[in-house]
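Action item from last week, closing it out:
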Amino acid sequence: MLKKELGIKINENLNANQRKQLTELLSRNRNVFAKDITELGKTSYHYHRIDTGNAPPVQSMPYRQTPQMRQETEKHIDIMLKNDIIEESNSPWSSPIVLVRKKKSNMDAKQEKFVHNYSKIVTPLTQLTQKNKKYIWTQDCQAAFETLKHSLVSAPILVFPDFEKPFVLSVDASDYAIGYVLGQLNPNTKLEHVVAYGGRSLNKNEQKWHINEKEGLALKEGIKHFNPYLASHKFTVYTDNITVRWIDTIKNIQGRLGRWALELQGYDFEIMHRPGKKNNADALSRREYEKIGPEYFPQNEIEQTVAAMSNKKYEIITFDYKGDDEQQPNILTITDTGNEDDETLENIDPEQFKKRKTFRHLQRHCPDFVEIFSYKLEGQVPQERQKARQLDAKAFHYEIDNGILYHFFNARSRSLPKGQNMVKQLAIPRTLRKEVLEAFHDNIVGCHQGEERTYEAVRQRYYWPNMYTDIKTYIKTCEICQRSKRDTHSHPVPLKPMPIEEVFSRWHMDILELPETPEKYRYLLLVVDSGSKWCEAFPMRTQEATEVASILFREIIARFGAPRCIVSDQGANFLSKLVAALCELLQIKRHYTSAYHPQTNAACERMNSFIVQSLRAQLEKQTDWPNYIAPIMMAYRMTPATQSTQYSPFHLLFGQEMRAPIDVALIPKSTLPKNHREYLNKFIKDLLLTRDVAAENTKRAQAKYKTQHDKRAVKPTYLPGDKVMLFCKKVKKGQSPKLKVRWTGPFTITNLGPPDCNTFKLRRDSDNKISKKLVNASRLKVFNSKTDRPDYLLDDNDDLFEEDEDDEG
């Protein structure tokens, strides 16, 4: 009774006892089953109300209906009124009734145009969909179904390709499969005829993709599948997906769609939109496909195909694929087994294949890629939601091809739209990254290029996480680069002005080398007073200590008195025992500049520049330079020092300006006042005031120069024990300064120099030799040891490709 009342069908495979138990269960719970709309349950516990707020009522006119549609509408309204589902209302709110036709099967609609007597053939099938008709699949239904199936793969639906006509490709995707149909348009009937069908099921990972990506996959797979027909012809693609419709024109396209758009750039096609119900591939994307495995390629069929290719004898070498991808077939390689001189179709080196297997093993066991493989192949994700999202976003840029992991990135290019310059990178495991960097940096073709150039070269082929940081660290710690390249990010050390002294309290000394004269003069000894900028210059035949000490005593100390200190570089003549004894005898302190840092002796350096510039302007014969020293000294002494004191050295020394030769003719002769004592007192007072003003001007100039200098200056923070490189300016005779390796080391700092002098004592690491001279911080830079590199860039991986039987097999 219950079965007839509710129209329930009980499976015939159940025995009598099971049928009885099921019937009793349904009878006890009869109240939960509704025979029709009259038995639908009702409740008064809750009233459904629509809160319209303050919105004005919406009134829409009813749609025009045919008599048949109106009759169907009134029928449904009467049923709902009778069962208290709706009630009559005079509400100002009104909406029209919409009737939707039952759509026909897409595949049926396509076949109806081609199959002769289509309506007669499908009669047993259409009867199954009639109202109040029991669904019983009979032999007539099966025969009709087989007839329709056969019509799909035979004329006139299926035709041979005509390469004079344009091809049409229809693609579609569902939640579990993709389908594609290659066809051609008949110019006479304007109907599309099928050339070939295609499709496949989606793997577990692909089923999780967004529908846009599934449709894009259908497009890519369809074009690749029918490549022999489409490679050299223009064709039209039909899809029901809007995103795929514009895949070749969308800007900033990334991810899988971007990569696929790049792969399809070699084809000439136009994408058109076609609704799903009119899409030829709609039904193919909803059928079940068998998994592609080794059985997909029967061995006997392959051998027959190979035998038909040539009269030569071939053997089939099969390498079983060990990956997790269910759809990856065996790797088949055809090699010639004929004479040794015969050409081979393809040779596989077992060693190369072993390396490929080992490389795949290294990838899958690399900590950086383990999660990617687990997610791509097995769908494993972390338990934490945030980490799962991060992994999904990261895996979006990876792809597994033949068991090998690849990464994709969109290279920036001004000439190409974003998304159309996709680069496929091989993912490098940690154990091979050192070899890659050695090949692109240390190798002879790497040429020890900089960080950016090396990074760009590697990025075009390979990828690993934090690759830019690793390359930067690797190059930063390369000893050859540290020795041969200049320090482009160096900063000067803060300036420490020397204290302002009284006139003749501190002399600065230096020796200038000039062309040898007929009188054998070759050197010029310069002595400059720091207080007045008074300068003396003495030609010398040698720069030996005896000659230097003699001039220093006879021409300076004997005429101007013993100074408090003398500043010079660390030349052997100034460091000699003779000069040291002279200074000790007269109680003169000696100060030396640090090696190759003449800035401390700036007074002499500026004087050197002035003399050389003046000689260059006046000399006709370079060996005549001693004859011009006296006039140059006169010019310098009578000219105000605009960069410091604002007075001439002569004025600060004698209290008045030097009389120039032209002054004798133009300036009247001055007369002394009658009161000589008063004049003398005023003269001394003015001279002292002038020197005070000059000292103040010098102090102000030093402060201004220090402010300007220290804008980019950084105080060195070296401490004893730090490793540094030393800049060496000395070039051996016969060597080119441009090709000289300027940085030497590494050195270890052993001691600090005087406070605020920024000088250091060094010990060379190669032989533990300690330098005798202090070195200024401006000649030092930090030494970056290779131990600062990541561990995987330090390991020796010479035997990486030794086959591991346990892991591989």
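Closing note: Residues 14 and 20 are 10 Å apart (CA to CA).
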